[in-house]
Amino acid sequence: MGQELSCLSSHEHNLFSAVQHGDLETVRTLLDGDSALPHQTTPYDRQSLLHIAAANGQIEILSMLLDQPLHPDLLNRNKQTPLMLAAMRGKIFCVKKLLDAGANVLKFDSLNGRTCLHYAAYHGHSECLQIILSSAKSSHVAASWGYARFVNIRDGRGATPLHLAARQRRPDCVHILLDNGALVCATTGGHGYPGSTPLHLAARGGSLDCVRELLAWGADRLQRDNSGRIPYSVAMKHMHNVCAALLNPSSSEPLVWPSPLKFISELNQDAKFLLERALMEANKEREKRILKGTTISVSPFHSDAGAESDISEADDDDNNLCSICFEQVCTMEVQTCGHQLCAHCTLSLCCHNKPNPNTDSVTPPVCPFCRGPISRLTVAKFGSSDDLDHDVNEISSSKIRRTRRSRNLSEGSSSFRGLSSAVGSLGKLGGRGSSGRIAVDDDDDGDLIDKP
What we know:
single chain, Serine Threonine Protein Phosphatase 5, Tetratricopeptide repeat, Herpes Virus-1, 3 strands, globular, disordered C terminus, ubiquitin protein ligase activity, repeat, Ankyrin_rpt, transferase
């Protein structure tokens, strides 16, 4: 960009340089003196003032330029909009400002046929990704184009944003996209290897956290690409042994997020957070069992000692102990009947069996106490709002060691028999030594398979 600025006249050079470095007063002075200057572009890449302000995160100058008669979807030489450059660079406030000004999220560039959503996912800017998705959900895009179609939009080489996030080792972006309806088993066109799923690409990149997320959302370990390879073969070829161990078809199946259940899609953020954390804890315990006795080692999951609250030492918390597993504090409540249980046991009710994607309707689970159908879940409340915040932030991640004790299970005691196998397996997975903290790969850009 600096070489391009040197090709401009002195007046234009001063303006573009002031925009790039955030000199608001100079920009305002120069624009007031010449009404044609706001429409100037750099000689080669045809970057407008909006492009330069957005790419450099100059939100005040961007706001001032948008107050001028400038269209937010100006195109540079590669048909990229200012929104694409802001998403590429992770300039959150500029992304939000451009969306508020009416920037079009369905613009495709001429390099790889990508949108702003592809760029945010590719470069791992999860907050920008979430803002773009939220804007699309509440805009004309959802009504006229279809929100699910937008989330799974393909670039010029047949890759969805989820493919790009998985290949570039972006677990946060993978999670956000899956949570918004990205197809976990979609195959690519010409990106990477034809017919690759996000799980193939995550195996190729060696991102353990991306593999975890994809498996937890039902990715098929046996799906083959156009060369006939399963993700396990791809991981082995690139010597990602830990990923390969989890992808081995002979290893146990992970628990899968029960997205087909209607009340799961209606969970509030706190309840969803608790169940997601329980799911990741359970699957990490599965990983330990798979890797146990092998030469493969994985770095220990970090735990925050401060998260071990005083609850495990308090006598008056016995009343809040889950009556099914006797190990975890009750953090979930069935809203229709008011019965409470821990997140791990709730999870065993919802996803003991892997959901069938070909099934249109899924029978909702029933409350183990009263046998009534579970149609809505919420976070269990124990008195004040401070207690609720404490439950969400600490109880769900703390390990509570207690001696099993007899309790009166007269209310619906026979209904626990149907849960015996599920809770038995999940009890081993859930409440013994897990911190509940989801590890995230600290990856650099690494080796990119193409340039954005």
